[in-house]
Write a structure and sequence with these properties.
The protein is of the alpha+beta class. The chain folds into 2 domains: 24-148, no CATH class; 149-340, no CATH class. It is built from 10 helices and 10 strands. α6 packs across α9. The longest helix is centred in the first third of the chain and has 32 residues, at 4-35. It starts with a helix and ends in an 11-residue tail after the last helix.
Length: 349
């Protein structure tokens, strides 16, 4: 007969060692990402002088290696590849950028070293910063598969990913009129979001995600975020108690039932987050606010969300950036976009 105490100890030891090995593996991979050559300015020698069209290309091997490490950390089992048949997609990326307002072009000129195209990324896009550049620079990665949708279809697809698909409800997001509902304008919105990530770090409106500073010390992050029990917490967590369960791109693995949509969005409207994605963390809070401000306020384009039950609207949210609950963040972005620099506003053709 097996000694129960010994067996219990054995299993406990196995779990402990497995947990430690997993923790060590994540720490090792994170260190590899932090020290990776793709995050050094030397890896991108000459890229700052390139024409913007030359900066929109399939991801080179050095960047793919970096993304593979990130996929391991995220337990994403597909292998990210450089985009194929990418030229028409790149043309639309350029067209989207060329239509940006001068204030947005200024930020793009200041901070983006390149825009790289891939497939099987695991999300719509990815952004990171080059650790030794002054002024700070970064790169944007776009997944040509995820973004092979028209604007409203893409926005709606993304907004449904935090919820279990097994429901009679669905979420519909409208970010373009019928005329503007194109793939190019889907690309436009995601670039605004990713550019917001770079601007957030380079303008020091929130902590650098590699340094993990105290969010209370940063002007934008401190509006909604704080540290509680040595971890990030929203100042709205008592009001929006399900916030920590929101996981985008989760789909079948989602922690939110499809029928929770109306209560989730009703709680969201009690906060100052402009979107559900903004509520997931301080970095996406700023990136979403940046994107929506540029899209709605500067470009005069729509943003509307509806929850549908069997095709019939039962909840609606319109242009959250313009609502009273967003006034402090709206004022912050207005001031940010008024700030001038020596960078050229007009992109090189």
């Amino acid at each position: 007969m097996i000694n129960v105490k010994i067996l219990t100890f054995f299993f406990a030891a196995c779990l402990f060692l497995t947990s430690c090995a997993y923790h060590d593996s994540r720490e090792t991979l994170s260190k590899q990402m932090f020290e990776h050559k793709s995050r050094t300015l030397a890896a991108w020698s000459g890229w700052q002088k390139k024409d913007i069209r030359e900066k929109i290309v399939p991801a080179p091997d050095i960047l793919l290696d970096y993304l593979h490490i990130d996929n391991k950390i995220s337990s994403y089992d597909k292998v990210t590849q450089p985009a194929t048949q990418w030229q028409s997609f790149a043309d639309e990326v350029f067209q989207a950028i060329d239509e940006f307002p001068p204030e947005v072009k200024r930020h793009l000129n200041e901070h983006v070293i390149g825009i790289f195209l891939v497939s099987d990324l695991g999300s719509s896009a990815f952004t990171d910063i080059i650790r030794d550049s002054t002024p700070p620079l970064g790169f944007i990665v776009l997944d040509s598969q995820s973004l092979n949708r028209k604007a409203n279809e893409w926005a709606s697809w993304k907004e449904n990913t935090p919820f279990s698909p097994y429901s009679k409800m669905e979420t519909r997001v409208i970010i373009e009129s019928k005329v503007g509902d194109t793939r190019k304008n889907a690309i436009s919105y995601i670039i605004l979001h990713e550019l917001g990530h770079l601007v957030g770090v380079t303008k020091e409106v929130h902590a650098n995600w590699w340094d993990k500073g105290n969010h209370n010390d940063y002007p934008f992050a401190s509006i909604s975020w704080t540290r509680r029990n040595d971890s990030l917490a929203s100042k709205w967590d008592d009001t929006f108690q399900n916030r920590s369960r929101v996981r985008f791109y989760a789909n079948e693995k989602s922690q939110l039932a499809g029928d929770e949509r109306t209560s989730i969005y009703a709680n969201l409207e009690k906060t100052d987050f402009v979107s559900l994605y903004a509520a997931t963390g301080s970095y996406d809070d700023f990136a979403e606010t940046y994107a929506m401000y540029a899209h709605v306020v500067l470009q005069k384009r729509p943003w509307e969300l509806e929850v549908l039950r069997e095709g019939k609207p039962i909840f609606r949210m319109t242009e959250p950036i313009l609502q009273a609950r967003s006034k402090y963040k709206r004022a912050f972005l207005a001031k940010l976009f008024e700030t001038k620099s020596q960078a050229e506003v007009t992109l090189t053709h």
